[in-house]
Amino acid sequence: MSLCMTPPSCMSEPATKPRLLELALAFNKISLASFGGGLSAWARRVIVEEKKWLDDEEFLSALTLSRVLPGANQMNFAVYVGSRFHGFEGALAAVLGLITIPFLIILALAYAYFLHSTAPAMQDVLRGVTAVAIALALSVGLKTGEKFLFNPTALLFGALAFAASVFVKLPLIAVLAILGPPAFLVAWRHDPGKKGDP
Amino acid sequence: MKLGPILSLISFFSVLSILSVGGSNSVVPEMARHAVEVEHWLTLAQFTDIFAISQATPGPSNLIVALIGFKVAGWWGALVAQLAMMLPAASLMLLVSRIWVTSSGRPWHLALEHGLAPIAVGLIFASGWTIAEGASLSTIGYVIAAVCTLLFWKSHINPIPIIAVVGVLGWMRLI
Fold first, then answer.
1. What sections of A111-171 are H helices per DSSP?
2. pLDDT digit string (tens) for B33-84?
3. Which residues of chain A lie closer than 8 angstroms to B124, CB-CB?
């Protein structure tokens, strides 16, 4: 990337740039797999582990952007990854891959519900699936967080973010507004040019 | 295709799109208020049903909008409502993504990325915790969740067959 001044700390470029069709297929897979919750898990599994299009750090920052900006998180994440490699066309391909099949499914369900008044009994199935969705989210937390285990500052910020969200029940935007600036300053003072711990 | 209902779908959902900070589920209460009480597009019972349907469908969390659009103006209504809900937020995300990617390597970009990473991890744990709190699983359900957490963390096992099995267990009301 032309703006990089310190090569080791730049966003690492994947070996091959994904083609538009590959972007669409990858996001189709993410969207079909992640029902019942668990966007972060499937997004990381497909984009970081399988395709190696993003590294963990860029994945986490893209995920945070996707969650803090308005719009469905999955959609925003698709826009980020698509536009990262192919600008507007990439974003379009990723979003179309994400939405097309679920949209067709929802049309069929809309037809069944409003015109034949049959509500599919999906609640029970969903409860079982939820157990796995919980595990998927927690395992991604462990995978992306295990490198912070011996980093007290990172552990502190992670724990505070968790507590603010779960126990104080602050909305995401408030958590980031409160914890973001001090975390930024600590990382800035630590060494703005070096990759690694904050 | 009637133009009036289509236009009110567009005007409502395109505004809601920009207001949906933190994901589309954050604007579901406003959606219910507007669709049920203000516009009388559907009844509260129907809204509750379609919310459950949209949650159980794979895909992004804003698909409930297509169901409302379908009720109001048929196939075109579904398409128009879905597009209105997607385009404004996606355009903003496209703009911010561009800025973020082109600033790669700048000191402020790195400090933001490094500083926010542990916070993002804490929030991922929080999302797992929040799903668990709202799920009201049986003890077996929580044991399955714990075992699967370790499995997904330490191995590269494919979760899809596991999802299929627990889906059937849930359907048999065993979880």
1. 116, 123-145, 152-166
2. 899 999 999 998 888 888 878 877 888 888 999 999 999 999 999 999 999 9
3. 40, 63, 137, 140-141, 144-145
